[in-house]
TrEMBL record:
A single GO BP: glycerol metabolic process
Record-given protein name: 2-acylglycerol O-acyltransferase 1
Pfam families linked to this entry: DAGAT
Principal subcellular localization: endoplasmic reticulum
Biological source species: Aotus nancymaae
Enzyme class of the recorded protein, top EC level: transferase
Residue intervals passing through the bilayer: 21-48
Length: 283
């Protein structure tokens, strides 16, 4: 197979976009391994005393993920995220303005491989969406537990938003270009949460999310899918095997393709329509 190299005369802006996405991908894939490696090195070289301040901080900080996390506008305003957003590019489309006096749950689909649409639109300050946003994930950003979501949505004053990637790890294993497989049948807890907390529901769909990576074929019942599902149950997160383009060539690598992402947010359930659901029971 002939290798297609990137041209040498690529504009500086595009190079910065590539660098921004590369560091995001590496952080996403290798962050945990790097920290584990540091811990092992400290153990091997008998620097155990360095754990004392860390464990002390961990003890007092243990409940932070269930209390809205630690939002940092300084980090959200880093210029690197502008280049990240422009790489694809990522667009956020609101079908209507949201009342800042209310709290909301954003139900996001599809998960994709690395949920780039969620990150670009709701974890940085470079989308056209400026309301207060809490991204709930499986114990990686802000805990997606019932306690955590309730904490955010019970705040007075409105303008608090919980973004939940509903399909989760299970949905990521079906993230293939040209298709959308959504896991919704057993994902009704967020609806009950909205009714309980009086929050408004907003459907969010990210067109183009599944086009960023080519995942190795893993149909239901295949040996690869069986292994992935077993590992998911053990570790709590999925391991989709994907291949895309590289940094200096376009044949293989870990860089997502430059495919536009159009994320559409549409309010589907508000206080008025909730009255019709007040006696419903969700299973």
């Amino acid at each position: 197979m002939k290798v297609e190299f990137a041209p040498l005369n690529i504009p500086r802006t595009r190079r910065l976009q590539t660098a921004a996405v590369l560091q995001w991908v590496l952080s996403f894939l290798l962050q945990a391994q790097v920290f584990i490696g540091i811990i092992l090195m400290l153990i091997i070289h008998n620097y155990w005393f360095l754990y004392i301040p860390y464990l002390t901080w961990l003890y007092f900080d243990w409940r932070t993920p269930e209390q809205g996390g630690r939002r940092s506008n300084w980090v959200r305003n880093w210029t690197v995220w502008k280049y990240f957003k422009d790489y694809f590019p990522i667009h956020l489309i609101k079908t209507q303005d949201l009342d800042p006096n209310h709290n909301y749950i954003f139900g996001f689909h599809p998960h994709g491989v690395l949920v780039a649409g969620v990150f670009g639109n709701f974890c940085t300050n470079y989308s056209n969406f400026k309301e207060l946003v809490h991204f709930h994930a499986a114990d990686t950003q802000v805990s997606v537990s019932k306690k955590s979501v309730s904490y955010v949505l019970s705040k007075d004053g409105g303008g608090n938003i919980s973004v939940i990637v509903l399909g989760g790890a299970e949905e990521s294993l079906d993230a293939h270009p040209g298709k959308f497989t959504l896991f919704t049948r057993q994902r009704k807890g967020f609806v009950k949460m909205a009714l309980t907390q009086g929050a408004y529901l907003v459907s969010v769909f990210s067109f183009g999310e599944n086009e960023l990576f080519k995942q190795i074929s893993n149909p239901e019942g295949s040996w690869l899918r069986t292994v992935q599902e077993k590992l998911q149950k053990i570790m709590g997160f999925a391991l989709p095997l994907f291949h895309t383009r590289g940094v200096f060539q376009y044949n293989s690598g870990l860089m997502p393709y430059r495919k536009a992402i159009h994320t559409v947010a549409h309010e589907t359930l508000n206080q008025k329509t909730q009255l019709n659901y007040s006696k419903c029971v969700f299973y």
